[in-house]
Amino acid sequence: MSCPGSFYVSRAALRLSKTFRINFQRIEGYPVDLYYLMDLSYSMEDDLRSIKSLGNQLFEALQGITKKGRIGFGSFVDKTVLPFTNTNPEKLKKPCAEKEQFCQPAFGYRHVLSMTADKATFQKEVNKQNISGNLDSPEGTLDAIMQAAVCGDRIGWRNSSTRIIVLTTDDGFHMAGDGKLAGILEPNDEKCYLENKIYSKSSEMDYPSVGQVATQLENNNIQPIFAVTKNMEGVYRKLSEMIPKSEVGVLSEDSRNVVELIKAAYNRLSSKVTVTHDSLPDNVKVTYTPKCPNGGGSGGDTGVCDNVGVGMMVSFDVTVTAKECLDRNISFTIGPLGIKDKLKVSVSTRCECECDDPQTDAHPYCNRQGKVNCGMCSCKDTFVGQKCECSIKGKDVSSLKAACQKDNGTECEGRGDCVCGVCQCHAIPGGLAYYGTHCECENESCEKYKNQLCGGNGKCICKNCVCDPEYEGPACQCKKSDEQCRSDQSVCNGRGTCQCNQCKCIEGYQRPFCKFCPACQTPCITKGKCIECLGFQTGPFSKNCSEACKSIHKFEMVDTLPPGKPCDVRDVENCRVFFTTFQLVGEDNYTCPELPNIYGIIGGSIAGVALIGLLILLLIKGIIYMNDLKEFRRFENEKKKAKWTDGANPLFQNATTTVANPTFTGE
């Protein structure tokens, strides 16, 4: 079906719309292909038993919808790799509990039965099905939907039929990216890989994304019905919002209500007509205005009518807008979702004017510097402008345009026209206008506070708030005050600014008062050389000490450092130097109790030790002298008290002297 249209668009009005009407009538007995896609994980055991017993009712319900109904069957569990399925060989053969007698080997997706109108064949194939199992809760649902959508010839979808997938499950689903858990990195390519009715790439290809599934369902005109348990209703309603023409129904615990659920969901799908189109170029727009028999409906990028009964006619006014002249003819299709029949629309534009122009080459409208061509001036070589009002006088057009560009950007910031190298700014809705050399300014986009430009406490000038004297802040939302920024009579300790009564500290310093800087280098590292220079006139700064160390405002020599851990550095002679610093207001502003004279301390210490030793020796000598003096005096006292007699000592004998001549012989 074709509906070509030709759009004749003048250069002065590059926005022309064309509206036409399409009609849609819902007929009775339209062919229906229903594919029953069932989760056969172990938790669905009772649901499988119900489906086996409800096979005839399901088929009869389909026949009640249309006499041209057919039904197929497929099943799924999950990828047969860790961590989704136990890969122990025994568990792959029988992934169910030990007590379960009827359990089929683990699998991803299996196409069981192609579309058939034979009730007995459907019942027979369903009765053959057994439960299977996997490890984690989410299933390979999207894998199964993707294969059922793209393997049309294997499934048996008819060209002219309403295509429905009924998905029954009691759990969530894996999606794109989950395959990485099993080391599967190859993305899903949205192609059919059924071999012997099994999805052969299940363990080699990642799960598809929700967007991929939605695209393939729409491309293949398939409408899904998600029949899920109550605990999964919220999950699948969110999924349904991302897939056009889909419905969600809540299963009972054993799925016995599935027949009624399918009938109700089908009625909702078939009574809702949604018209849309395929992709368009950026310069063409299509909008819909529904004419629903019961009123209501919604339009815009898609047209929707609800509660459309059998035999009812619905109409949609389709408006196609060409925003600019097209380089070539384009085509696109329009049609209701879920229906294969489409309307092809061809669009072309003709932008060449056929005008009865005056023949003069110096028309007054063009300031006599050009001629009129279809309402527009065609200027002489040395003139430019809409009315040839600008004489370039040796300049080229590119240099004039460059004068209208800010930082080599768009001419006049896209907010004005470049006329003879000067921007003429456009007006803004509401009576204002852009302004500035390059139309870069306007007074409506400043920050707001309490829904007022600049908080009502200033003026918006060129996109920036200029606050009243007593206010500050990007939206003039703060009264000027530094009360909460003051510490020790200084504002933010001189290491930041007070904005909105809060300190905005220099990088590294912390709120609330910018007092501490955990990440900054300690003064022990940065001021050591200055201390050496100021204290001993040595070190690398000795020649320009006052200039290099001007951040130290006060320097004091002390004998004892204040309490606290001092800095300990080595000077050029490898001597240890101890000092402390106090940071004043400001970022690099210190006062230092000067380090003591190390040599004086050492000399004084030695002299002190010698003096103390001498005093100790004198003290000992004095103690010994006093003790001896005391003993002597006691001896003298005892001597005076002694009583001596003059009698002879009876024991005393006088001495006898004998002299012998060694030469005497006795003769």
Automatic annotation (TrEMBL):
Residue ranges constituting the Integrin beta subunit VWA domain according to the UniProt record: 2-353
One GO biological process term: cell adhesion mediated by integrin
GO CC, any one term: cell surface
The organism's place on the tree of life at top rank: Eukaryota
Domain Integrin beta subunit tail residue range list: 524-597
Compartmental location: Cell membrane
Listed Gene3D superfamilies: Cytochrome c1, transmembrane anchor, C-terminal, Laminin, ntegrin, alpha v. Chain A, domain 3, von Willebrand factor, type A domain
Presence of keyword Amino-acid biosynthesis: no
Spans through the membrane: 598-624
The Integrin beta subunit cytoplasmic domain, residue ranges: 621-667
Membrane topology value: Single-pass type I membrane protein
Any Pfam family the entry gives: Integrin_b_cyt
SUPFAM superfamilies noted in UniProt: EGF/Laminin, Integrin beta tail domain, Integrin domains, vWA-like
Keywords per UniProt: Cell adhesion, Cell membrane, Disulfide bond, EGF-like domain, Glycoprotein, Integrin, Magnesium, Membrane, Repeat, Signal, Transmembrane, Transmembrane helix
GO molecular function: amyloid-beta binding; integrin binding; protein kinase binding
Record-linked PANTHER family: INTEGRIN BETA SUBUNIT, INTEGRIN BETA-2
Family to which this protein belongs: Belongs to the integrin beta chain family.
Protein name: Integrin beta
Organism encoding this protein: Esox lucius (Northern pike)
Name of the encoding gene: ITGB2
